[in-house]
Design a protein that fits this description.
By secondary structure, this protein is α+β, with helices and mostly antiparallel strands. The chain contains eleven helices and twelve strands. The chain binds phenylalanine (PHE). It comes from Sphingomonas adhaesiva.
Amino acid sequence: LKTHLLTAIEASAALDALEAVRVEALGKQGRVTQLLKTMGAMSPEERQANGPAIHGLREAVTNAIAARKAVLEQISLDAQLAGEALDMTLPVDVPAPGTVHPVSQVMDELAEIFADLGFAVATGPEIEDDWHNFGALNIPETHPARAMQDTFYIAQPEDSADAPMVLRTHTSPVQIRTMVEVARRHAGAGAPIRIIAPGRVYRSDWDATHTPMFHQVEGLVIDKGITLAHLKWTLETFLRAFFERDDVVLRLRPSYFPFTEPSAEVDVGFSIEKGKRVIGGDEGWMEVLGSGMVHPRVIAACGLDPAEWQGFAFGCGIDRLAMLKYGIDDLRPVFEADVRWLKHYGFAA
Ligand code: PHE
């Protein structure tokens, strides 16, 4: 019996088979249990003769079951762990890492170039009031820039007497905010200003070279004795640093902006290299920005004395700069968030 039971215990391949053997041996009706029960009817001599063997059998079977149980449990645990283990050789879906957008890249480059020239970065709200976007900039009520087809107006109650808020149509309102703040801080006495203001601007326009949202960088210098020569030197230094070429030449063309007097549109010279236009040289001219000496009326509107303070300002399309520097030929994908496009023109994050 002992051999039979021990063999059965060793042979049980799973915990439920082992449990069946335990019931067969040690259960209420089990064969070892039955043997133990027969001892009650034995004479003391018989009990002395058979007792040790029967108890020994029970102990051997109990120990064997416990030992086998431990082994089976270990096997089942190993199997479970093996099933749950990670297969490190499987291919994984790695989310595509982002890249720096060319427009962000250019904004960073601008901030760096102008920081070297002593300019701070200023910001303003994208939802502007009429006064900051137009009025203080000497843009008359009748100016075409205010017309519905160019400016996005924010809806307001019909009975409102206030001029509607607008999505700023240029970064020039940051000029106003900066000068007003300086006038306030110095109680009208003023102080030199050197800022650039990069950011989003909005106009109701949509084709290969116009998107309803685009980016500009504004520049503003206010000080004593500032002239057009300072403007030209600053723009030249900036564009040479930006395009990383010493042969970048500028051409200032007389122009008109309500908030500058005189005003100049600035063209940058390009040449043809391997059939492509590259900035540098003077085989042709491309318009890159608007600029001028800040109109005395604008300085006065901000609470500064135009007899004491003069300055220049410029406004430049950032997307345009990015396209020229990085050879992008359609503006629209610049804002379409297509990862393939970003990969092509993006910069390592
Ligand atoms: N705000 C003008 C524009 O959006 C650009 C500009 C800025 C011109 C500053 C002169 C001075 O076209």
